Amino acid sequence: MASSVFASPVPHPLFRLPTMDPKQRFHTHFLDSVSSVAAIPAERQEAIDHILAGVAKLQNEVADAAEFTPSYDRRQYADTVKSLQDALNATIAKVTPRSRFQFKRPSKPTAHVDMGAPMNDPRLHPGSLSSTNHATTTSAPTHQRTESQSDARDYNASLSAPSSSLTRRPSFSSATSITLTSHADLHILLPPSASAATSSGSLTNLRRCVVDLSEPAATSPFRGLAIRDVAESVLVAGRVDGPVHITAVTNSIIVVSARQVRIHECKNVDVYLHCTSHPIIEDCSGMRFAPLPAPYTTSDGTENQWDQVDDFKWLKAGPSPNWTTLSEAERLDDEAWTTVVKGTSSTSVEEMLQKLHIPRGKRDGSPAGNSA
């Protein structure tokens, strides 16, 4: 019999009580779900996909249960889900041939069929990110596709090449996912053609950048998005149907619409948000939240819980000191999103960041530097 993700799954509850309160009912349901997911053998790709979907569903359910579960319980649930993720990642590492992860194109075109996912694909880490040190990455891994490697294109290398254009518009038309990594002082505006690559997204190791993914995400939302190691930047991520994981971001602005948002180890970040569950922060400070700006809103009718933030590191009574809401007077106006973020042929990234008040607290004409 194939081995399961957990050697010893969480025990199945012995009985159910029809009159359970919501907290106890969810606890029983959670144990049932974890036991079911943990028992699935992870040696085949279809099983891995099934487990990933199960883990993502558990994360969403934990977030949705925030209104009637104590902070301590939610943290225990999150730790249990993370254990599932870690066990799955360890199993994937064992059963996936190392040669499936290609970081360089071969010198000669070779027919190659690859069903593996790159290690920085957020689908492998629904609640956490790969341990790869993105700060030292100089180019993104070749996107794995069921096609000849000669058709692959390194979009990050193209973005890093010198150019007379102040705005870069990588098409990502020959990619299956969007990965932007290790860039500084760039204005990156993805065109609608990138909608074919929104199976997943990853934005890592960015410094003083303005990135707008909203156009392709408007027609084809990301299934999942990971943001990590970003400083003094503005990221308009657009629509995400799955979870968003934001880690180690400082002095920046993020705009995103998602079902679930988890934020870790961030400082001085303004988040303009539409979220259908409680946003979660952990090990963060100086976080400010606002509803999604008008130019990016849609009439889907879903409830926006942008201001129902749960701080997993603040278990005391009373509001957390690590986050607050942005008043209407403090929020950027519509022109910032429709004009400044889109850029012009004569506007530098430095000028754009100043107009968008990055670093935080700076205003037009003021010198760049550490935020106040």
Short précis:
The chain is an alpha/beta fold.
List the helices and strands and how they pair.
Elements: H1 22-38, H2 45-64, H3 71-95, H4 155-160, E1 167-168, E2 178-184, E3 187-189, E4 201-207, E5 210-212, H5 214-219, E6 225-231, E7 234-264, E8 267-275, E9 280-282, E10 287-291, E11 310-311, E12 323-325, H6 334-340, H7 349-355
Parallel strand pairs: 1-3, 2-4, 3-5, 4-6, 5-7, 6-7, 7-8, 7-9, 8-10, 9-11, 10-12
Molecular structure report:
This protein is an alpha/beta fold. Helix content is 24%, strand content 22%. The chain contains seven helices and twelve strands. It has helices spanning 22-38, 45-64, 71-95, 155-160, 214-219, 334-340, 349-355, and strands at residues 167-168, 178-184, 187-189, 201-207, 210-212, 225-231, 234-264, 267-275, 280-282, 287-291, 310-311, 323-325. Strands 1, 2, 3, 4, 5, 6, 7, 8, 9, 10, 11 and 12 form a twelve-stranded parallel beta sheet that branches. Helix 1 packs antiparallel against helix 2. The termini are far apart. Mean pLDDT is 76; it is low at 1-18, 98-151 and 363-372. One of its GO terms (molecular function) is tubulin binding. InterPro entries: C-CAP_CF_C-like, CAP/MinC_C, CARP_motif, TBCC, TBCC_N, TBCC_N_sf, Tubulin-bd_cofactor_C_dom. One of its GO terms (cellular component) is cytoplasm. Belongs to the TBCC family. Residues 99-170 are annotated as: Disordered.
Protein traits:
alpha/beta, 22% strand, globular, twelve-stranded parallel β-sheet, disordered C terminus, TBCC_N_sf, 372 residues, disordered N terminus, single chain
